[in-house]
Structure formats: structure tokens, C-alpha cells
């Protein structure tokens, strides 16, 4: 740092305050215009060069858009503004890029799935249907999914609920910290690993055979941490004053939790459980290892192999015939519809119940 | 360096709500103007319209004219970024960039404006820190995080950061409300020195402070909650505090309401 | 946040029953016992996962005639059994890295879009859509990837091979083969982990103090400069941990890989070639033909995957926890 401080401006001349507030600016419609130009040029180049893949067209258009934005803005407004505009364009491009696979996935699944999706498909199993024959249905898989997910819920919801209550209402010290950490770690267990664990424990060591219940054990392991997390968040939202006012009335703690805390956060907890259900309903890997798949209707989740919706989609995909691809898409559509309905209803409940928890 | 501000017919809105209504005033260069008034009277909102920070708030909208010498801040073709570069601002709570050192905090605005040479940066950083009466306290820890300073030092660091880019006008939004009395005194002394070079506008809740530091004082008020704030009067500070022309001003200053 | 810290201690002991019959003490004991027990059960499950996987894995690895870590092929049902995870580890890591390279910048961009760029009317529905994207089951991504993405990527692959083939990475051994490669898997995984990285980053961006952003604005910073000066530095550790959560998801993904990848025990730097494998994909593919010993061998590979995801997720959580303390101290 120099010692001589003078009032003179630094010689570089870069630090001259702007003389005027207004300067040349790009018109408001310029980003849209550049975008349209870039897309048109991208398509043009793509057609002219005979590039077969739309991905290339999009890439070319994107590069033209970013380059064009930078070049033109730098000319008119200066480098800083150009950088700002490029950042804006990139962020908007990310938005569009994210929409492309989503739209494509939804459109493809619906358009291909709707072909054979009808009452017959929903009410029949694959009994006696050969791989390359059309027909057959998804009924046995729906039964399997409902039973497996239901059993998983019966196990995971109480454990998850009580663990969350422990963490929020009772937990202090080392044990609570350890539990919190392992709940987080458990969230990250790959579904196939939880399947392998039940395989090792339930089937290879305890000697049980493949069944829907074995699958639901693995699903429960995946579901518990999600339930704990969401319930914990909801319980924390319940204000301390509410608890204290109940305790001050002489209500024992467990009744306070049961009658005051839980009802207050019921909506949020329900939302969390439904989102967890939506999440595990789409799991394929544990089913593959533990439930084994079945062409026929098996209503008993404790005996013998079952099917499930995600497993059905995989099975039909692996068969690799046109008829089975149709069934795979239709099964995927049923699965997506099931998961999305759960999601929308769950978030609806969350929104509807939210003001009561005082957010 | 300093420019005069002429405001005419200025109203500001938050979405549908009108926060301030039809304000006109003149602010002379190299003076300190204090805005006083009860909470919610729109004085902070008005301050934020003077460097186009108001429109950063979602739903924020402004009508009217703010002339900086002969240019309208809200004229077509005016870039808000240039406006904020020309009209600096110091906030209620000290807000140094938490991840940056003392040096980088002061240099942040310069680097944005294209000052790249280390020697130039060193010179201006030192000059600005001296200008903010902070140099002696931090010259040995220029590379330590700015968030490690005390509240009063952080606020002076923010002033150094604001004057480093040599603005025409310096806006201060209750700059001392989060500080202890000693730090407050340091800032008030500093304001007295800064007005040699800058046009200063300061919002304050503290009437003694307004009386101590300002040349002119503007009193804002609102007729009822939910109504827009209005400028009641603006005059020389001495007059406002001794013999205001409006009864409401006298009531407020003598503590009869607010 | 410790909610119970200020609540009074439970009612005094030995108030057995009083007339009306409210049994205070036992009720509390049962209830707290149940919730404590659930917490402990959770730890037991985690311990059991590690223990049982290890038991079976040790059994398998001890009889492995190849080197478990360096052998390429997976012939666990052969006699003598020869299997190793070299190709699987390589494929898992390469596909996840590709996914990260694609997903992280885009996810951060989307998060910025939602928090700072989108018109307010667009932001919250779009955040909702991203949430829905997270809810799509992986098998549906797998089906879409195999039947839609694979054929549509063929042209891009040829192009990459033609112009970037000299890098070896983008060289195709047989130009024009189906895009059932680690590269395609990486793209699909990127799409799948996009929502989780976006959601966590968005949450962090939302927490950036308004004062920091206004400080930058008042210096005359453009929107991008505000983000560079005050948003990104504040959110850096959050973005890192978000990315690691995404990485954990990508490493363990099964069905999307199993449907798309044409697996073979070849370790190749050419990511466009339809060869290779991943841990999870190998388990799904080899499971049906495996005997009891073959299952143990697959469990051994699953254990490695478990440990890797554990480390990645643990690291992500530690970063988040450290960050909380840090920002708490400065608040």
C-alpha cells in the first residue's frame, strides 16, 4: 500500500464516475428477437447440414443465442451489461432445458400409454398371455403394489412417527444427535441396498421365501426416514406456547403430545406420509429382489411371489415385443397417475392446512 | 462531485398500496438533509426512490420525477444500475459482504466498475477507509473478514465501501439505529466531514441526531394507518426545531405524538 | 431448535391414580419409551444393514478366485467363482460424474431462475413442477430413457464421434451403435437428480440475507453481479452439499441404468460405447440367474455401494451441519 495519498484520480482513468445516467440501451424486445433469430438460424443450419438429431439443432440455437446476446449487448451497452444479459439468458435457458425432458416424458408416456389403457387392462392379469400377444392387464400388479405399500405403511408410519416425536419432544444429548444423523444417512440408502439387506436377513438367513411382505419390509426401510423428516418438520412448527399452556393446565406430557401437538400438525404429517407413499410406490429394485414377480393374481402378500406396478413395467420392457412395450407404457401411465394423484392431493392438504400451523 | 436533487410529484407504491403521495422537494449539494417522522410515514420508502432501490422490492412502483442536476432518474433510457452507482446508500444494519475481507469489501464496487490495477485499488481503499475514519483501526487487518469487526466499525466499513466509488449523493437509512452511543457519535462526526464532498440524505428516528447533523430537516407524516405518507414541511433544521410553520411538526418534535 | 428445553419437567413421580383415573406417570413412561424405542430401532436397523451385508459379503469374497477389487468379469455362479467390481466401480463413478457435470450447473441455473429471475407468477408453479419431476418413479425414467432417449441420442453421438472423436472419450468403436452407453446413462441420471439439487439450492438461495443483496445493488451492481457478489458466496457450501445429495442418488440408481445400459464386462474410456456396468445395474441384471452363492457375491458388491453412498451422504450432511453453525454464529 502506498503511503502518499493524493487527491488525484488514479492514472488508469478507469475510475471516472459516469457523466450521464442514460446511455444507449437495447430495446425491451431484444432478448426475444435474438432468441427467435437464433432458433431460426439453428433450424436452418440443422436442415442445411442434414443433422439428424434435434439435440444438435437445439445446441446450435443455444450457442447462437448466447453468443448473439453477448455480442450485441457488448456493442450497444458495454461489457458489464453484456455479462449480465448472458447470465440472464443462461438462466432462462436452464429453465427451458429443464422443461424439455419433463414435457417429453409426460407426453410420451401419455400418448403411448393411453393406447391400450382401458377397463380391460385395469381389471385383468397376465394370466395366459404370451409375451408377443396383445391383451392382458395390470390388475395383479395394482393389487401387489397396494398390499406391499399398505404393509410398508403399517410398519413405517408408527416407527417414523414415534422417532420424530422422540427427536422433537424428548430427545436430547448423544442418542438424539446420533438418531438425527442416521435418519439423514438412511435417507440416502439406495433402494437396491435396502432390498439386498432384506434378502440377506429375511430370505438367506431366516429362510423365508419370496413374498410381497419381504418387499414391504424393504420399502418400509426406505419410507421410515422420509416420514421421520417430514413429521419432525411439522412438529417443530407447533409453537412452544401451545405445549406450555397445555402442560400448565396439568395435562401430562404424553396427552399433550397426543391431544394438542399431533392434531395441530396432522395435516402436515399426512402430507409427509403421502409423499413418502408416492415415493416408495415407484420403487422397483427391492421388488425385483424380494417379491420376484408373478403373472397371476396373488392376493396374499405373505405367501408366494407377487407383482407390482413398477415391476410390471420393467418386466414388460424386458420382454421386448411390441405388445409388451405397449403394456409397459400403459403400466407406466397407471403408475405415474397414481403417484401424481398422491402428490397433488398431499400438497393440496399441505396448502389447505398450512395457515393453521401459523406459518 | 456533489449534485443537487429536485423531486417533483413523486408517489411510490407497493403493488396496490400507495406508500407515499405526491412529494416535491429540493436538496442542495453539499448539505445534510434529515428525514424525520413517525414509523410507517414513508420516509425510508422515499429515500429508496432516490436511488431506484424501491423498485427492487417486489411490486415496487414509482410515479413522478427525480432530477439529479439536469437528468431524471426515472427518465427513459436511464439504467438503474448507473443510478445506484451515482447515488450511494448506507443501510440500517451494517451489511458488509460476509465472505469478503475488509479490503475486498471496500474494493467490491471499484472492481465492478473496472478498476483492476492493484496500485489503484490500494490507493482508493486507503483513501476511502481514511474518509470513513476507519483506517487506523483496520490497517493491520485488511485481509481479515469484514464480519469480524464491531457493529460500529462494520457500519463505517459500509460507508467506506459506499464512498469508494465516489458517488454524487450518499443516502443513509437510519445508519445508527443498530449501534451503541459511542459508535453513533463516530458516525455523526463522520457525516459532518463527508458533507464537504457529498450531498447527504439521512433518515433518522432520533430527533437529537437530526438536530445535530443536518442543515435541513423534512418532516413526514401520515394521516392514518393504511394512508400514504406525505411530506408535511421541509425547512432549515434550526427553524424546524425552534419555530416550525406547521402545528403537526411541533407536536411531533415536542413529543406529543409519534 | 430445541423445543423441549424450556418445558417444565414431567409431573412428579408416584402420583398413581386419583379418583377420575388419569394415570399420569405410566402413560408418560410408556409414551416416551415407545418414542425412544423407535429411535433406537432405527439405529438397530442401520446397524443390522451393515452387519448382515458384511456377513454375506465376507462369505462371498473369501471364496472369490479372482481379486474382488480388480477383476473385470462377474462369474459368481461359475465353478470356481471369479468376480470383481472393477468395471462396476468404474461405470458407477463415470456415469455419476457425467450426471453431475450436466446436472449441477443446470440445477443451479434453475434454482436461480426460481429465486431471482422468474416473474413471480411463473416462479411458484415452476417450483411445483420441479417437485413433480422429483416424484416420477425411476422405472418410468428408465422406460423413457430406453425407448425414447436412446434412439434420439444416436445422431448426437455420431456428431460427437465425428468432431470430438480425437479426445478418445467421445470416440465410438463402431460409429452408429445404439446409444446404450454410460454417456446416455449419465444424461438420464442428470435428469433424475436435477430436482433434488434444484430444491436444496433454491432453499439456500432463499436464505441469502436481503441486506447482502441490497449492499451489492446499492453499489451499482447488475443482477448478475449481485448474484456473484452476495448470493453465490453465501450459498457455496449449500450448493456443494446439494450436489453431493444428488451424487448419492445417482450412485445408487438401479432401474434407469438397468433399462438403458447394454452391459458387458469391459472397462473403456470411450463413454459412447455400449459397454460397462454399475453396481446397482449389475445386481438387478445378475440376480435372477444367481444361485445362493451368486446372491452373496451380489450382496458383496451392494456392500461396496452402501459404503460409498454412506460416505457421500455423510459428507453432504456434515457440510450442511457445519454451515448451520457458521451462519448461526453470524446471525
Annotated CATH topology of chain B? Rossmann fold
Domains of chain B (count): 1
Any idea of the CATH class of chain B? Answer: Alpha Beta
Average pLDDT of chain B = 90
Main sheet overview of chain A: none
| CATH architectural type of the largest domain in chain A | Orthogonal Bundle
Which structural category do the helix and sheet elements of chain B fall into? alpha/beta
Largest interface, counted by CB within 8 Å of the partner chain's CB: A-C, 109 and 107 residues
Topology order of chain B in helix (H) and strand (E) letters: EEEHEEHEHHHHEHEHEEHH
Oligomeric nature of the chains: heterotrimer
Query: What is the gyration radius of chain B calculated from CA atoms?
Result: 18 Å
Shape of chain A: flat
Descriptive keywords:
heterotrimer, B: 258 residues, alpha/beta, Rossmann fold, 10 strands, 26% strand, C: mainly alpha, MetI-like fold, two-stranded antiparallel sheet, 2 strands, 70% helix, disordered N terminus
Explain this structure to me?
The complex is a heterotrimer of chains A (359), B (258) and C (331). Chain A is mainly α and 359 residues long. Chain A folds into two domains: 30-113, no CATH class; 139-357, MetI-like fold (Orthogonal Bundle), CATH 1.10.3720.10. In chain A, 72% of the residues lie in helices and 0% in strands. In chain A, α8 runs antiparallel to α11 (266-281). The longest helix of chain A has 35 residues, at 79-113. By secondary structure, chain B is an alpha/beta fold. Chain B has a single domain, classed as P-loop containing nucleotide triphosphate hydrolases (Rossmann fold, 3-Layer(aba) Sandwich). A six-stranded mixed beta sheet of chain B has the order 6-7-8-3-9-10, sandwiched between helices. In chain B, α3 runs parallel beside α6 and α4 packs across α6 (151-164). The longest helix of chain B has 14 residues, at 118-131. Chain B is globular and about 55 Å long. The model of chain B has no long low-confidence stretch (mean pLDDT 90). Residues 1-23 and 326-331 of chain C have low confidence and may be disordered. In chain C, strands 1-2 form a two-stranded antiparallel ribbon. Chain C is mainly alpha-helical and 331 residues long. Chain C starts with 23 loop residues before the first helix and ends with a helix. In chain C, a hairpin with a 6-residue loop joins β1 (74-75) and β2. The relative contact order of chain C is 0.13. Chain C has helices at 24-62, 86-117, 120-135, 138-164, 182-207, 210-218, 223-252, 255-260, 279-286, 292-330, and strands spanning 74-75, 82-83. Chain C is built from ten helices and two strands. Chains in contact: A-B, A-C, B-C. The interface between A and B is medium-sized, with 19 and 33 residues.
Amino acid at each position: 500500500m502506498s503511503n502518499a495519498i493524493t487527491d488525484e484520480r488514479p492514472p488508469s482513468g478507469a475510475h471516472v464516475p459516469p457523466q450521464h445516467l442514460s446511455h444507449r440501451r437495447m430495446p425491451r424486445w431484444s432478448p426475444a428477437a435474438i432468441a427467435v433469430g437464433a432458433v431460426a438460424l439453428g433450424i436452418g443450419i440443422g436442415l442445411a447440414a442434414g443433422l439428424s438429431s434435434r439435440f444438435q439443432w437445439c445446441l446450435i440455437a443455444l450457442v447462437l443465442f448466447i453468443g448473439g446476446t453477448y455480442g450485441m449487448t457488448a456493442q450497444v451497452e458495454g461489457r458489464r451489461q453484456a455479462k449480465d444479459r448472458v447470465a440472464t439468458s443462461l438462466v432462462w435457458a436452464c429453465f427451458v432445458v429443464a422443461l424439455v425432458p419433463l414435457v417429453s416424458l409426460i407426453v410420451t408416456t401419455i400418448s403411448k400409454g393411453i393406447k391400450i389403457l382401458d377397463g380391460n387392462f385395469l381389471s385383468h392379469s397376465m394370466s395366459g398371455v404370451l409375451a408377443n400377444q396383445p391383451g392382458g392387464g395390470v390388475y395383479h400388479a395394482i393389487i401387489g403394489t397396494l398390499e406391499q405399500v399398505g404393509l410398508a405403511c403399517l410398519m413405517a408410519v408408527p416407527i417414523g412417527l414415534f422417532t420424530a416425536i422422540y427427536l422433537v419432544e424428548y430427545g436430547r444429548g448423544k442418542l438424539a444427535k446420533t438418531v438425527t444423523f442416521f435418519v439423514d444417512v438412511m435417507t440416502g440408502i439406495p433402494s437396491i441396498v435396502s432390498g439386498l439387506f432384506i434378502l440377506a436377513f429375511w430370505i438367506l438367513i431366516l429362510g423365508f421365501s419370496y413374498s410381497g411382505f419381504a418387499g414391504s419390509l424393504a420399502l418400509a426401510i426406505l419410507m421410515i426416514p422420509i416420514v421421520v423428516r417430514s413429521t419432525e418438520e411439522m412438529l417443530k412448527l407447533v409453537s412452544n406456547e401451545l405445549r406450555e399452556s397445555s402442560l400448565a393446565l396439568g395435562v401430562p406430557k404424553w396427552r399433550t403430545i397426543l391431544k394438542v401437538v399431533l392434531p395441530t400438525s396432522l395435516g402436515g404429517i399426512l402430507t409427509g406420509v403421502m409423499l413418502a407413499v408416492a415415493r416408495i410406490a415407484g420403487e422397483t429394485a427391492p421388488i425385483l429382489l424380494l417379491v420376484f414377480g408373478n403373472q397371476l393374481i396373488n392376493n396374499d402378500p405373505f405367501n408366494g411371489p407377487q407383482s407390482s406396478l413398477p415391476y410390471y413395467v420393467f418386466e414388460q420392457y424386458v420382454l421386448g415385443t411390441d405388445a409388451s412395450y405397449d403394456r409397459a407404457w400403459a403400466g407406466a401411465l397407471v403408475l405415474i397417475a397414481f403417484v401424481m394423484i398422491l402428490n397433488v392431493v398431499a400438497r393440496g392438504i399441505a396448502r389447505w392446512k398450512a395457515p393453521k400451523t401459523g406459518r | 462531485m456533489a449534485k443537487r436533487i429536485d423531486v417533483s410529484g413523486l408517489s411510490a407504491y407497493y403493488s396496490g398500496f400507495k406508500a407515499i403521495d405526491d412529494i416535491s422537494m429540493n436538496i442542495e449539494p453539499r448539505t445534510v438533509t434529515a428525514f424525520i417522522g413517525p414509523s410507517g410515514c414513508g420516509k425510508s420508502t422515499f429515500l429508496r426512490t432516490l436511488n431506484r432501490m424501491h423498485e427492487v422490492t417486489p411490486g415496487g412502483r414509482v410515479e413522478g420525477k427525480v432530477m439529479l442536476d439536469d437528468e431524471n432518474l426515472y427518465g427513459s433510457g436511464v439504467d438503474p444500475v448507473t443510478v445506484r452507482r451515482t447515488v450511494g446508500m448506507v443501510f440500517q444494519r451494517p451489511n458488509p459482504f460476509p465472505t469478503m475481507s475488509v479490503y475486498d469489501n471496500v474494493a467490491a464496487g471499484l472492481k465492478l466498475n473496472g478498476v483492476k490495477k492493484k496500485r489503484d485499488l490500494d490507493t482508493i481503499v486507503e483513501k476511502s477507509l481514511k474518509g470513513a475514519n476507519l483506517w487506523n483501526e483496520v490497517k493491520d487487518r485488511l485481509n481479515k473478514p469484514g464480519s469480524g469487526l464491531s457493529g460500529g466499525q462494520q457500519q463505517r466499513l459500509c460507508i467506506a465501501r459506499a464512498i469508494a466509488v465516489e458517488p454524487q449523493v450518499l443516502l443513509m437509512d437510519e445508519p445508527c439505529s443498530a449501534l451503541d452511543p459511542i459508535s453513533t457519535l463516530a458516525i455523526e462526526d463522520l457525516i459532518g466531514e463527508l458533507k464537504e464532498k457529498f450531498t447527504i440524505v439521512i433518515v433518522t428516528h432520533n430527533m437529537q441526531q437530526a438536530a445535530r447533523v443536518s442543515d435541513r430537516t423534512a418532516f413526514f407524516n401520515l394521516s392514518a394507518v393504511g394512508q400514504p405518507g406525505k411530506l408535511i414541511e421541509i425547512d432549515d433544521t434550526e427553524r424546524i426545531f425552534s419555530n416550525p410553520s406547521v402545528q403537526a411538526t411541533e407536536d411531533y418534535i415536542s413529543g406529543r405524538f409519534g | 431448535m430445541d423445543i423441549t428445553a424450556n418445558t417444565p419437567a414431567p409431573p412428579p413421580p408416584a402420583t398413581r391414580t386419583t379418583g377420575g383415573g388419569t394415570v399420569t406417570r405410566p402413560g408418560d413412561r410408556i409414551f416416551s419409551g415407545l418414542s425412544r424405542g423407535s429411535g433406537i430401532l432405527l439405529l438397530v436397523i442401520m446397524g443390522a444393514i451393515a452387519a448382515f451385508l458384511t456377513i454375506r459379503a465376507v462369505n462371498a469374497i473369501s471364496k472369490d478366485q479372482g481379486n474382488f477389487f480388480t477383476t473385470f468379469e462377474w462369474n459368481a455362479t461359475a465353478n470356481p467363482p471369479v468376480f470383481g467390481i472393477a468395471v462396476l466401480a468404474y461405470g458407477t463413478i463415470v456415469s455419476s460424474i457425467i450426471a453431475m457435470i450436466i446436472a449441477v450447473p443446470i440445477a443451479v441455473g434453475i434454482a436461480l431462475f426460481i429465486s431471482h429471475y422468474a416473474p413471480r407468477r411463473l416462479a411458484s408453479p415452476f417450483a411445483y413442477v420441479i417437485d413433480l419431476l422429483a416424484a416420477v418413479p425411476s422405472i418410468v425414467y428408465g422406460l423413457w430413457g430406453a425407448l425414447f432417449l436412446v434412439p434420439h441420442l444416436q445422431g448426437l453421438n455420431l456428431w460427437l464421434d465425428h468432431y470430438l472423436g480425437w479426445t478418445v472419450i467421445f470416440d465410438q468403436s463402431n460409429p452408429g451403435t445404439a446409444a446404450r452407453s454410460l454417456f446416455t446413462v449419465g444424461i438420464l441420471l442428470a435428469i433424475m437428480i436435477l430436482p433434488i439439487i434444484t430444491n436444496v439450492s433454491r432453499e439456500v438461495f432463499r436464505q441469502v440475507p436481503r441486506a447482502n443483496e441490497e449492499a451489492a445493488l446499492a453499489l451499482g451492481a447488475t443482477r448478475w453481479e449481485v448474484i456473484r457478489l452476495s448470493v453465490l458466496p453465501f450459498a457455496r457450501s449449500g450448493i456443494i452439499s446439494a450436489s453431493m445429495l444428488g451424487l448419492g442418488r445417482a450412485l445408487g440408481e438401479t432401474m434407469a441404468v438397468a433399462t438403458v445400459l447394454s452391459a458387458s464386462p469391459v472397462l473403456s474410456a470411450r463413454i459412447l460405447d455400449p459397454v460397462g456396468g454399475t453396481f446397482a445395474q449389475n445386481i438387478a441384471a445378475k440376480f435372477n440367474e444367481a444361485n445362493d452363492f451368486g446372491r452373496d457375491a451380489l450382496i458383496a458388491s451392494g456392500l461396496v455401494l452402501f459404503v460409498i453412498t454412506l460416505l457421500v451422504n455423510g459428507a453432504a450432511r456434515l457440510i450442511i451441519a457445519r454451515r448451520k453453525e457458521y451462519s448461526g454464529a453470524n446471525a
